[in-house]
């Protein structure tokens, strides 16, 4: 393998913000265009070793990659939906996020006790062991890596929300077992073929994602679990539409198409072939840059709390939503939060109109409902008819007097 050339990185944009690239998008473009060593000796892939395809080795699909990064930087974006035909890299891209995911503070307690529980409900809101730790000044949380949790295609409702622990029942004990939604807390939950989900499972995921927690009850036994996760879904529209209430819960929507350029398609083939023959060496080519990108994501997350949206920019966002005749209030929320994440990724503490332009297509597409537009138009006509009749009635009454 030839020696790697050092990155020629630009200066940070604002004083006091120590950054090494202008934006994550620039980093992705820089690394994606780098010469890839495709000819590698074949070796055992190591079936027990999970080595996702490197995110930075993905060819093209800039909007899909950007949307996923924005959702990681700012969980308030409320996830990403990838819509496109088979073989366009949706699942590969989602899985490739693994090595870019940041660290979070997790509860170190079996019962999930957190410092905010004490702040909200006092010392009695946590278990006795955590109360003792708090009194002694011992941290109740630990740093842990965000994980990618996949929902299996054959998952049952008990797999998703949890159920009775069968091993405990053998010993005549009643104990609940955590489900996938509880395991996904503070993680990324990836749902492939989200449009084919059973209604019960889809409703459970939506309710848990919306509330940030859910209560599981089996007979006389009940438990409440936190479920604050970033939802990433993918679907092939050929296989069926997505229910409107599910579609509305995804913040960013990306329409994924195949690569247009023959050169890009051949480059994707070379990289895919190299990965299948020698995944370890392929991942190693991007290991340094992946670590660098992860640091950029951490910096953006740290800066996010300081990013402000000027009133003029916020009003412009509202005008865009109004012009598109979108009723859901989630449209403005997603648009502005995605713009904040974009500015943070660009090492800036203020959102601009250009940020809105960059994220608006992802945040606002697939939100208009032709059915509702027609429904409101018909309703408006009916209201006008009512008003006309009532006005005539009032005029007739006045003439009679």
Describe what this molecule looks like in 3D.
The protein is of the alpha/beta class. Among the domains are: 103-145, no CATH class; 305-390, Helicase, Ruva Protein, domain 3. It is 47% helix and 12% strand. The protein contains 17 helices and 11 strands. The strands form 4 sheets. The protein has a 5-stranded parallel sheet. The longest helix has 31 residues, at 370-400. The termini are far apart.
Q: Quick one: how many beta strands?
A: 11
Helical run tally: 17
Identify the quaternary structure here: single chain
User: Regarding CATH, which class of the domain at 305-390?
Assistant: Mainly Alpha
The strand order across the widest sheet is 4-7-10-1-11
Overall pLDDT: 82
Distance between the termini: 99 Å
Q: Helix amount, in percent?
A: 40-55%
Backbone shape:
globular
Low-confidence stretches: 1-19
Task: Specify Rg, calculated over alpha carbons.
Answer: 25 Å
What structural category characterises the helix and strand content? alpha/beta
Instruction: Identify the CATH architecture of the domain at 305-390.
Output: Orthogonal Bundle
Give, in order, the helices and strands.
HHEHEHHEEHEHEHEHEEEHEHHHHHHH
CATH superfamily of the domain at 305-390: Magnesium chelatase subunit I, C-Terminal domain
Q: Look up the CATH topology of the domain at 305-390.
A: Helicase, Ruva Protein, domain 3
């Amino acid at each position: 393998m030839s020696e790697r050339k050092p990155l020629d990185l630009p200066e940070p944009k604002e004083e006091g913000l120590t950054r090494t690239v202008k934006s994550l998008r620039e980093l992705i473009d820089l690394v994606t265009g780098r010469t890839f060593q495709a000819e590698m000796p074949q070796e055992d892939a190591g079936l027990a070793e999970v080595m996702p395809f490197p995110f930075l080795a993905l060819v093209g699909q800039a909007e899909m990659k950007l949307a996923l990064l924005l959702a990681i930087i700012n969980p308030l974006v409320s996830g990403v939906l990838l819509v496109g035909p088979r073989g366009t890299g949706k699942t590969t891209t989602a899985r490739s996020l693994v090595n870019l995911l940041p660290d979070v503070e997790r509860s170190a307690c079996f019962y999930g006790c957190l410092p905010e529980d004490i702040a909200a409900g006092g010392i009695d809101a946590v278990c006795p062991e955590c109360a003792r730790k708090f009194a002694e000044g011992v941290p109740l949380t630990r740093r842990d890596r965000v994980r990618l949790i996949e929902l299996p295609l054959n998952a049952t409702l008990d797999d998703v929300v949890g159920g009775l622990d069968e091993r405990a029942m053998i010993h005549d004990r009643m104990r609940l077992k955590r489900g996938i939604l509880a395991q996904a807390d503070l993680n990324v939950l990836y749902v492939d073929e989200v449009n084919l989900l059973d209604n019960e499972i889809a409703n459970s995921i939506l309710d848990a994602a919306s509330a940030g927690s859910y209560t599981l009850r089996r007979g006389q036994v009940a438990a409440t679990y936190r479920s604050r996760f970033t939802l990433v879904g993918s679907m092939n529209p050929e296989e069926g539409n997505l229910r409107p209430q599910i579609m509305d819960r995804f913040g960013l929507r990306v329409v994924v198409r195949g690569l247009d350029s023959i050169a890009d398609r051949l480059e994707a083939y070379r990289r895919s072939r190299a990965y299948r023959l020698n995944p370890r060496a392929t991942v190693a080519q991007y290991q340094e840059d992946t670590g660098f990108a992860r640091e950029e994501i951490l910096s953006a997350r740290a800066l996010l709390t300081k990013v402000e949206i000027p009133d003029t920019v916020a009003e412009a966002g509202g005008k865009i939503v109004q012009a598109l005749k979108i009723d859901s209030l989630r449209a403005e929320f997603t648009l502005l939060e995605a713009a904040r994440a974009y500015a943070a990724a660009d090492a800036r503490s203020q959102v601009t109109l250009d940020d809105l332009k960059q994220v608006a297509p992802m945040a606002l597409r697939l939100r208009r409902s032709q059915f509702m537009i027609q429904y409101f138009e018909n309703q408006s006509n009916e209201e006008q008819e009512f008003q006309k009749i009532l006005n005539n009635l009032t005029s007739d009454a006045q003439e009679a007097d």
